[in-house]
Amino acid sequence: MYGRSHEWSTNISDSDSEEPKLPLNQFYPYIRCALCCGFLIDATTITECLHTFCKSCIVKHFFYSNRCPTCSIVVHQTQPLYNIRPDRQLQDIVYKMVPFLEEFEKEQMCKFYKERGLEVPKPVVVSPPVPVVLKRQKKDNIPQSVFTIPPELDVSLLLEFVGAEEGINNYKPLERRYVRVSGEATVRHVELFIRRKMELSSTCQVDVVCGDHLLDHYQSLKDIQNSVGEEALQDGLLVLHFGLVLPSQS
Q1: What average pLDDT does the segment 136-142 reach?
Q2: Is-contact 27 97, C-beta < 8 A?
Q3: Cα Rg of the chain, angstroms
Q4: Cβ 220 vs Cβ 192: under 8 Å
Q5: Does this model's pTM top 0.85?
Q6: Which residues contact 2 (CB under 8 A, 6 or more apart)?
Q7: Same topology for domains 24-116 and 154-245, yes or no?
Q8: Are strands 155-164 and 213-214 parallel, antiparallel or unpaired?
Q9: DSSP secondary structure letters along 20-75
Q10: Which residues form the RING-type domain (predicted)?
């Protein structure tokens, strides 16, 4: 994304170039939103596939789908809004390429707020960087970490591999055993995660067990944690054992 944007700005801003000027419509595939077919406003990029849309368009789209509108990749199983980021560099390019678009958008925003009797938000002023003076802090005044875990990701998993049935050999070890997910996720989601990370064959079956219970695909992790109770927890982690077996012959 950033390499592409840099190439645009180089070709367009070089007024000394002898290359002929290109019509704006040749850049439409890069500066227009595929959802509303208008020029990008608040350009927002999906981190999984780098496709970009208007912020309002992609947020509305995620109300009823968790897939990218362009390539249909699953952005996130339960919270696709976690995997979008503002693309300010691309938005700056759009404003420079399309005359009066930025001014028109500001007028529309002011009109929107005034019609509803709301205060127009003031533009964010970026302060120049100030030299940071490091001071030794008391132990009690250590600041909290900037990163906070979203409340929706309320179940911590420990995935323990118990082995594979004879005849199953081609698989990678599961390097990421500790996972934090939504309690609404199901055993099926866990199985798909294991399949992808271990690069399992479609003929291989994944059995997931919690305590003495063989779990069904439709069971949610929150329900499992509530039904099994403290017996399934280890230092606050929900422990799931899984093994690889060959499908039974009918």
Answers
A1: 51
A2: yes
A3: 25
A4: no
A5: no
A6: 89
A7: no
A8: unpaired
A9: PPPPGGGGHHHHB-TTT-SB-SSEEEETTT--EEEHHHHHHHTTT--B-TTT--BS
A10: 33-72
- Considering the four listed CATH numbers 3.20.20.70, 3.40.140.10, 3.30.70.1400, 3.30.40.10, the one that applies to the domain covering 24-116 is 3.30.40.10
For the CA atoms of 218, 69, 58, 77, what is the dihedral angle to 10 degrees?
Answer: 20
Is the per-residue pLDDT at 146 higher than 50?
A: no
Greater confidence (2 vs 39) lies with 39
CATH number of 154-245: 3.10.20.90
pLDDT band at 2, cuts 50/70/90?
Answer: very low
Q: From CA 110, how far away is CA 112, in angstroms rounded?
A: 5
Q: Which two tokens stand for residue 62?
A: 């995620």
